[in-house]
């Protein structure tokens, strides 16, 4: 899978996409992630990429020309399955959407910008608008990193058996069960006996029960959800 990320703050994205599972997926060429500095496509001596909004509302708006020029260049090289824009007014991101995107071959993510982008970008160039939650970030870069992380870790081969995506929270609309490691007792706090029993069937049953308990207690909405699987 190839992910092209368009941003005015490339440095902000480099670190979150350079460690752990994402690094391994990139090293194994499962994911090619290319971060593009939009300013390289900016206008004039100062490489301008944003301007005041028509109508006088305060705040700078990302201009269509540099975005369009960069996207056209990318589209000449390969077809894109989805062109995503990160914005708090997009469709809420969830595991189902991460699963869907992980099956695509080439995507572009355009990071949102302060006051937003020229609406014509959204109307004519973007195929999907995504929000990572009901709060406002300073820009779309962290949202792009979240989406990329959630997608890339699902690519076949990115996770080893130990960290298999199948046992993740949300993958089957349930939160993951609690996990423990050594020591089996610490300051009188004990690991549940069943996990030390060596009986795989009993352990599986216990994990299922705990998953269900946790979901009922913390996220009952997931149990009645038809759109999050
Ligand atoms: N940009 C700013 N806030 C955002 C959010 N919640 N989701 C996606 N992009 C954003």
Any ligands, ions or cofactors bound here, and which? adenine
Uncertain segments: none
Total beta strands: 9
Q: Report the structural category.
A: alpha/beta
Q: Can you say what the CATH homologous superfamily of the largest domain is?
A: SPOUT methyltransferase, trefoil knot domain
Largest sheet: 5 strands, parallel
Supply the number of helical segments: 9
Report mean pLDDT, rounded to a whole number: 94
Task: Work out the strand percent.
Answer: 15-25%
- Looking across the biggest beta sheet, what order are the strands in? 2-1-6-5-7
**How many structural domains can be distinguished in the coordinates?**
2
Shape: elongated
CATH topology of the largest domain: Alpha/beta knot
Could you please describe the fold and organization of this structure?
- 35% of the residues lie in helices and 18% in strands.
- With 229 residues, it is of the alpha/beta class.
- Strands 2-1-6-5-7 form a 5-stranded parallel β-sheet.
- α4 links the parallel β5 (82-92) and β6 (106-110).
- α4 (95-102) crosses α6 (141-152).
- The radius of gyration is 21 Å and the shape is elongated.
- The structure holds adenine.
- Residues 86-88, 112, 131-133, 135-137, 140, 143 line the site of adenine.
- Residues 86-88, 112, 131-133, 135-137, 140, 143 line the site of adenine (ADE).
């Amino acid at each position: 899978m190839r992910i092209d990320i368009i941003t005015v703050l490339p440095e902000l994205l480099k670190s979150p996409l350079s460690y752990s599972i994402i690094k391994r997926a990139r090293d194994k060429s499962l994911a090619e992630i290319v971060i593009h500095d939009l300013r390289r496509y900016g206008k004039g001596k100062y490489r301008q990429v944003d301007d005041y909004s028509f109508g006088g509302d305060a705040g700078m708006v990302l201009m269509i020309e540099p975005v369009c020029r960069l996207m056209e260049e990318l589209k000449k090289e390969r077809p894109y399955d989805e062109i995503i824009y990160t914005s708090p007014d997009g469709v809420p991101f969830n595991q189902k959407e991460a699963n869907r995107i992980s099956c695509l071959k080439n995507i572009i993510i355009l990071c949102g910008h302060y006051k937003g982008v020229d609406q014509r970008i959204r109307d004519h160039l973007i195929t999907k608008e995504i929000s990572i939650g009901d709060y406002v970030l300073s820009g779309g870069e962290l949202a792009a990193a979240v989406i990329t992380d959630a997608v890339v870790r699902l690519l076949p081969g990115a996770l080893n058996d130990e960290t298999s995506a199948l046992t993740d929270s949300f993958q089957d609309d349930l939160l993951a069960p609690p996990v423990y490691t050594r020591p089996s007792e610490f300051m009188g706090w004990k690991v549940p006996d069943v996990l030390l029993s060596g009986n795989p069937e009993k352990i599986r049953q216990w994990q299922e029960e705990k998953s269900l308990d946790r979901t009922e207690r913390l996220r009952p909405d997931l149990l009645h959800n038809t759109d999050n699987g």
